[in-house]
Every structure is written in C-alpha cells, then in structure tokens.
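Ticket #4471: structure output looks truncated?

Reporter: J.K.
Steps to reproduce: submitted the chain below (323 residues) through the standard prediction queue, then opened the result file.
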Amino acid sequence: MTWLITGGAGYIGAHVARAMADAGEDVVALDDLSTGVAARLPARIPLVEGSCLDGALLRTVLAEHAVTGVVHLAARKQVAESVAQPTRYYRENVGGLVTLLDAVADAGVGRFVFSSSAAVYGDPGVDLITEDAPCAPVNPYGETKLAGEWLVRAAGRAHGISTVCLRYFNVAGAAAPELADTGVFNIVPMVFDRLTRGEAPRVFGDDYPTPDGTCVRDYIHVADLAEAHLAAARWQAGGGARGDLTVNVGRGEGVSVRELIGVIAEVTGDPRDPVVEARRPGDAPRAVASAALAAERLGWTARRGVREMVESAWRGWQLHHGD
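Returned output as attached by the reporter:
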C-alpha cells in the first residue's frame, strides 16, 4: 500500500503522515504550503508541492508513486472565514475534492479516507451526537464537509472505492513540539497568543444555553486523531475493503470554553480572567461526540485527556514562539 496524504504538511496532516509511516505504510504527502510547513515531515516522506485543484498534477503523483489509497485532509477549515468567504470555501473544499476524486477514479485507487467534521451536524440539540443524528450545518464550512461526504460516498459506489468519512471534533495538542499547531485559528493557540502578548483570553459569547454560558466542545488530541486514521486504513485492508463507513472521532466528553481556559491557566501559570465578546457567527452551543461506533467498527478509542492536550500544545507553542 502507498498512501497519498493531501494536506500532509499541515498540523493534522503531518501527524497522520508520520503515524502511518511509523506503522510501516508507504506515504507521500501533497500540500500547497499555504498553511502547511514542509519541515514537519521527515525526509523519508516525499512532499509534492501543489493543489488538489490541479488535476494534471494529481494524476502524475498517483501514477508516479503507484498510490493505492488516499487520505484527504487538504481543505480550508475556519468557521468565521467560511461565513465571510463562502464561495472560496466551496471552490477549494468541494471543487478540490471533485478534482481529486476524478483523478482517484481514473487511476483505479481503491481506498479513500475523508477528513470530515462535526460541523456537518450543526446544532442537533442532544448531549451526545451519534452518526445517525440529522446533518444540518450552520455555516458554509460545515456545508462543504457534508457535501464532501456525499461526493465521497457517491464516488465510492460508482467506482468500487472503499470509503471512510471521519467526523472530527475539536483537535488540540501535539505528538511532538515541532508538530504543534503554528496558526492562531483554533482555541488553544488563540489563548496562548493572547497570554503571550500580555492580554486576557477572549470568550466569544457567555449566554449560550450551557452550564456556564460558554460553548461546550469535545476536544481530541491530534495524536489520537492520527491513530484513528491508521485504524481506518487497517479497517479498509480487512473487512471494509469494499464498504463505506462514517464515524465520529472524539472523546465523548464535553468541556466548556471557560473550563478549557481554566486548564490553560493552570498549565501556563497565567490565571488572568477572560474577557467576554460577542458571539461569533456559525458557532453551535454544544457539540460532543458519541465515539461508540469508532470503537466498535475500527477498534479505536481516544487515550489522551484535555490536560495532556494543553501541556503538549504549550510545549510546541514555546518552541515556535519563545524568545
């Protein structure tokens, strides 16, 4: 097996690429390096610089590396940005997937793992979200991920491709400091950034219908997420070789924004109180996974807790942003 990891130099992609390579899989990464960092990948993993919108390049990579499976992570993923730039999100997330699936089908690639998101659910209003919950995304990012799932399954049925859609919940942490999230878009690095600049963390809305008024999320360590991809690949190599599967990837435990900031305060030693600002458009009050199906079908369960996520992310932040 040779796996193409799109977005393979990204924060999540590099973790997935390394985990699969460490498990003995042959891996090649594709990344346009708009947010990816080439140095995240060891020399043993080839990196092709390019976009999933480039069909000719995709066909060349699939052929030259004799790719037999694809893990598709390349996408734009910021909720607020998607609200402001919906056409960009549809063009890159959906259009890039269409181009990739055409190339995959033409090359006879038999396995496809799709990076989806809990954003496909929107706000289902339940304590634990199961995979059969209605999908009603509340922002363009979630819409592109739901459309992506439809495309992946349809292409799988049409071309005999085994497909897995992994619905990630909120990702944090780092398997090693050099692999840490270097952007300031997700909540943990956003809080680190504020504290480093001597400013209080921000909370976007404290009037949600949750116990402390702040949004509740299911946080998962990126190393656990990488292991979920490996489990999906091995499921396909076994009984799932001709099937399709959609599973949540989370811990099944809700943590509020205010609670998470409290853990960050303990880890960093900076206990300043957050400031409350207006709600952001497109944020659901609560999104917590039921992870039972992933355990049942993939034999995968998250092993790392929130404090470990924050501690590992802080070590990475200090490496990349320290004096």
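Triage note (M.O.): checked the attachment and the full token line is present. The chain has a mean pLDDT of 95.
Status: closed, working as intended.
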